[in-house]
Amino acid sequence: MDLLKKRIQSDGQVLNDSLLKVDSFLNQQIDPQLMLKMGEEFAKRFSGESITKILTIESSGIAVSVMAGLILNVPVIFARKKKSVISNEALYCTKVYSFTKRESNSIIVPKNFLEKDDKVLIIDDFLANGEAATGLATIVKQANASVIGIGIVIEKSFQPGAQKLQQAGYRVESLARIASFSNGQVNFL
Ligand code: 5GP
Which atom number of ligand 1 is nearest to the Cα of residue 21? Predict the structure, then answer.
């Protein structure tokens, strides 16, 4: 998606050979117009798949997921990384190793939001080793629902996540695919 690639080129900061900072439009300050365009793009790529729900993970997957949910006219669920004190319902739960925090955390989704007939589109902001997306897919499986596909805003294709998910049989649609970082520059596939 050219608009996103241009934004990454102009506003992204390459922190080292594997980390990209995009706090000015995706991870801290959010550009709603760009989120809407990306939501439209996900909705287009998965149109005809009869998606019934979108599942993402807090916090950076939420904005773009809501836009995709608006266009597809389906609810958006986000997995929490910490149990809320007001949650008293049964939960789906799995462990995810965080690429940026370098620690394992449980991610949780209340059982009442996923049903066995649901056709779920998983969305996340980045794809690195595929841990977050795999964890979300595990939760969909726990509900006996189906993963229709995985939508990613920024795929770092030089890391193993995309290949791992495809080998597991998932359709992965990424809006920007990064081949490498070199001298502070982003090289797209
Ligand atoms: P994975 O689970 O695929 O290993 O990593 C994806 C998760 O780690 C995303 O949810 C995202 O929060 C975080 N992440 C991975 N790589 C990057 C990166 O280069 N920049 C930022 N901002 N987050 C990343």
Answer: 22
ω into 59 cis (within 30 of 0): yes
Q: Domain extents for the chain?
A: 2-188
Question: Looking at ligand 1, which residue's alpha carbon is closest to its atom 7?
Answer: 126
From ligand 1's centre to the CA of 44, what distance in Å? 24
Walk along the chain (189 residues) in steps of 10 and give the mean pLDDT of each run. Answer: 98 96 98 98 97 97 98 98 76 93 93 97 98 98 98 98 98 98 95
129 is in an annotated binding site: yes
Cα(154)–Cα(136) distance, integer angstroms: 17
Task: Please give the number of the atom of ligand 1 that sits closest to the Cα of 27.
Answer: 22
64 within ligand 1 shell (Cβ under 6 A)? no
Task: Provide the whole-model pTM.
Answer: 0.97
Task: Please say whether the structural domain 2-188 has been given the CATH code 3.40.50.2020.
Answer: yes
| DSSP strand pairing (119-127 vs 146-156) | parallel
